[in-house]
UniProtKB/TrEMBL annotation, chains A, B:
Catalyzes the phosphorylation of the beta-carboxyl group of aspartic acid with ATP to yield 4-phospho-L-aspartate, which is involved in the branched biosynthetic pathway leading to the biosynthesis of amino acids lysine, threonine, isoleucine and methionine. Pathway: Amino-acid biosynthesis; L-methionine biosynthesis via de novo pathway; L-homoserine from L-aspartate: step 1/3; Amino-acid biosynthesis; L-threonine biosynthesis; L-threonine from L-aspartate: step 1/5; Amino-acid biosynthesis; L-lysine biosynthesis via DAP pathway; (S)-tetrahydrodipicolinate from L-aspartate: step 1/4. This is Aspartokinase. Substrate binds at T47, E74. Gene3D superfamilies: Acetylglutamate kinase-like, VC0802-like.
Length: 427, 427
């Protein structure tokens, strides 16, 4: 059998009890005949505690030193995990990102992996040992300084290592059983999705489902590395993220396969409306150049048809709430040049999306989605679509009703409540 | 001006307040025109907390992984210290032992430094930056694994770096003002020693004075690197440990210079007596071979003259209390072959030593020492001497009286109480 890469998040190794449980799981996989390479995050709240410590001496920690500091977190968890495995009678060796050959650029805090040279990991595996690798970290090719990969870094480390090691699968463990058709906390009939494509997973993640980080899924898609998302608290099969979810699935199941894979929602956004923009060439460009120059990522954009009588139009867009005030300040500076009437800001909005690869060949998805919202009394404020997704912005108070309505309309539900917890994947 | 190496122990960087205070001291040294390279220990109790964490998963942590775990401690303190310095407007870069070029053998937990290749440190210094180096750690030349240097490791890192960088001085900071003529906690008239030789410092340390670790002083002596022992809590001059303490000191001061430099004491030992050993060739050898095979370090040994009538003798020796039961077990196995009568064990003993380089040319030191103890009513159980030291073992309850008596007999005291605290130097 080949190599299995397993990634355990901070919630799985939050304390000594968790570490021992994870050690036992790793040993069980080894006993089944696999070579095992493990990527581990920092224990529980360690990263936040280290950031707090840094903030005790400076409000703006220098990036190189913050990376040096934060990488202490995985160093602790990986060493203790290796100890716990050895206590079970199996050899284990821990490796920092640098020792594992995770080579990055020099962008501290958000470094990108540019190469993986897993010579020492392969050496450990050849010796029959279980290799434990620190997630989230690497070493800069140019400066030789320690770097961190930023959010989702440990998942990305795991997939990148799996690719470099030509592993059979990259297993991503957290405290949830897999990817669900909707957040079970607001949709009790949510069902675990057994298999899902990279593209659908990307859309679900981008639309607010806290399952896998975009970077890691993009990396897996580029190299066609299967990801198995599962819980470290149960032995159940989780969700397989693969290139072709229907490959190998029996034909009768295919017939029944859903057009929509899941419903995602996102409560982290705000909506800005620029009211009364003169409808002439270059005005919209000026607005979005100002936003881009302020390093703000915007999501959905809607421009109304201009009223012929006034020659004025409204432009609305959504963006992360945390960047709302910065964007408003950038736009305020434009009023004299662009000549808009006023700005509107609304942070009590939510986004609800239906995602499914079958959508592109099934007409009427948008209609069915909008009808279900209408029947549930949900008012649609904005709409955007992609090849495999339809998203709407609604009032934050109507997010739950919208998720429930869409989930029912596309018959995603089950009678059995499978999961109670639906959490983040850590970093 | 040249390079100054400064080493700060865990008590100096116990929290954010301490780190900021140390950062200010470092910047002050830089402002005086020195290039500064700093070696730092883990914050406060970090090392003990990490050991506790390891013990939560295994009673006997594997050495390689324990080193990986413990080195997280300095990683945290050095990164936060570098941040604090940068907040003061000076560039600072932290380096792990490996990055600083501290090359060791592969003996995890007690690695020896075999080379220092400080290329990156010199690069940082050439850029005008303050280099912050993790103490206590290195990287194995053969396995490329992370190692720790064991007790006194940070002091040794500092001296080794100072030698490799050809620094002007290695400053060792702790929470005491320097090396004292006796422990001020039991001898209120104790006086700070301004200058002391490597040899005297070694004897003081070996005899229980918790000032500098033997390894670091031995390293400094081998390469003639001056050590300045001082407090991070005051600006006072501390104690200079040098090759020739009287060099450059005015002749009239020399005339008055004390024959005895200080009084050390040690409450960490136990005494074992093997009673009724047949006085023939090879019996003592058999006893000490058994002790050595059990990896126990013994200190003083006394063998009584055998009583002619019985042909039996008693052999007593001292050893660290923690190893007492192991030694007793090793000796118990010998009873049938060596044929001794019985074993005695006493862990309520203490050792008091007078140390001074002037001793070798001043007769009568032992007599004056023993007379002072006699006048104080202190009973001497064992005696051992070196070229520059006389040590006695006494009852633990009489240690304080013995220190006071010796301190007064050799006129080491001052009327002024200089220090209240007299602590360890951390690791």
């Amino acid at each position: 059998m080949g190599i299995v890469v397993q990634k355990y998040g901070g919630s799985s190794v939050a304390d000594a009890v968790g570490i021992k449980r994870v050690a036992q799981r790793i040993v069980n996989t080894k006993k089944q005949g696999h070579d095992v390479v493990v990527v581990v995050s920092a224990m529980g709240d360690t990263t936040d505690e280290l950031i707090d410590l840094a903030n005790e001496v400076t409000p703006l920690p220098p990036a190189r030193e913050l990376d040096m500091l934060l990488t202490a977190g995985e160093r602790i968890s990986m060493a203790v995990l290796a100890m716990a495995i050895q206590t079970l009678g199996y050899e284990a060796r821990s490796f920092t990102g640098s020792q594992a050959g995770v080579i990055t650029d020099a962008e501290h805090g958000k470094a990108k992996i540019i190469d993986v040279r897993p010579g020492r990991i392969l050496g450990a595996v050849a010796d029959g040992a279980i290799a434990i690798v620190a997630g989230f970290q690497g070493v800069s090719q140019t400066t030789k300084d320690i770097t961190t990969l930023g959010r989702g870094g440990s998942d990305t480390t795991a997939v990148a290592l799996a690719v470099a090691l030509e592993a059979d699968v990259c297993e991503i463990y957290s405290d949830v059983d897999g990817i669900f058709t909707a957040d079970p906390r607001i949709e009790p009939r949510a069902r675990k999705i057994p298999r899902i494509s990279y593209e659908e997973t990307l859309e679900m993640a981008a639309q607010g489902a806290k399952i896998l980080h975009l970077r890691c899924v993009e990396y897996a898609r580029r190299y066609d590395m299967p990801i198995h998302v599962r819980s470290s608290f149960s032995e159940r099969e989780g969700t397989w993220v693969v290139k072709d979810p229907q490959a190998g699935v029996a034909q009768e199941s295919l017939m029944e396969s859903a057009i929509i894979t899941g419903v995602a929602h996102d409560r982290s956004q705000a909506k800005i409306t620029v009211v009364g923009v003169p409808d002439k060439v270059g005005e919209a460009a000026a607005i979005f150049r100002a936003i881009a120059d302020a390093q703000i990522n915007i999501d959905m954009i809607v421009q109304n048809v201009s009223a012929a009588a006034t020659g004025l139009t409204d432009i609305s867009f959504t963006l992360p709430r945390g960047e709302g005030q910065m964007a408003m300040a950038a736009l305020a500076k434009l009023q004299s040049t662009v000549g808009y009437e006023r700005l509107g800001y609304d942070d009590s909005v939510g986004k609800v999306s239906v995602v499914g690869a079958g959508m592109s060949t099934s007409p009427g998805i948008s209609a069915r989605f909008f009808e279900s919202l209408s029947e549930a009394g949900v008012n649609i404020e904005m709409i955007s679509t992609s090849e495999i997704r339809v998203s709407v912005v609604v009032s934050e108070t109507q997010v739950e009703a919208a998720v429930n309505a869409a989930h029912a309309a596309f018959e995603l539900g089950t009678d059995e409540v499978e999961a109670v917890v639906y959490g983040g994947t850590g970093r």
